[in-house]
Specification:
alpha+beta, three-stranded mixed sheet, 8 strands
Length: about 190
């Protein structure tokens, strides 16, 4: 009770102790740790070409309310770094069922799905308005950097390190193959 009384009376003398605002005229700054609904991250300018998701379907399998639906492509296309990958031909999330548990984010090995901070999602279309397809879910990596700068910096650094390792490995494996083209003379 003491803490409640301290907050109640303190709100009359200190603006920082106010816990309510006149929404929507006043808005509190969004917390970086805020999480609402998932979105798909893409690299580059084109969301179709740069989508990080490779349709591994781990998020679909791990989703507790089963609100994610993915169909994997039959063919492969080059991703943002040029490697041929499968891609989702269908990636839907029913946000009316999603419980924002973030399990899909935690299990994604490709850093392709993240949680958004957008919370004004009301719609008058009860059925199709709350079933988001991959175009609606796609958000750029720059957007991700603006809403979660600390987390995005860590992810970008880790992905850059993995890319550098893969390039070094490819370069190292390519160098001996080029030098073995000449037969040794004895």
């Amino acid at each position: 009770m003491v803490e409640t009384a301290r907050n109640f009376f303190g709100s009359y003398v200190s603006r920082e102790r106010l816990t309510t605002v006149e929404y929507p005229e006043e808005r509190l700054p969004q917390q970086e740790a805020a999480r609402n609904f998932p979105f798909l991250v893409y690299d580059g300018e084109d969301w179709k070409a740069g989508l990080r998701c490779v349709a591994c379907q781990i998020c679909e399998k791990e989703c507790p309310p089963k609100c994610i639906f993915i169909e994997k492509s039959k063919d492969k296309k080059p991703d943002a770094v040029g490697k041929a990958q499968f891609y989702p031909t269908v990636f839907n999330i029913d946000v009316s069922v999603c419980m924002s548990c973030q399990i899909c984010v935690e299990v994604c090995p490709f850093e392709a799905i993240k949680m958004d901070t957008d919370f004004e999602l009301s719609t008058d279309d009860r059925f199709c308005g709350l079933l988001w397809d991959r175009e609606r879910l796609a958000r750029s990596n720059e957007y991700y950097r603006t809403i979660h700068p600390t987390e995005a910096a860590e992810v970008d650094a880790r992905l850059a390190e993995e890319k550098a390792k893969a390039e070094a490995k490819a370069k190292a494996s390519g160098a001996p193959a080029a030098s073995t083209g000449v037969a040794p003379t004895a």
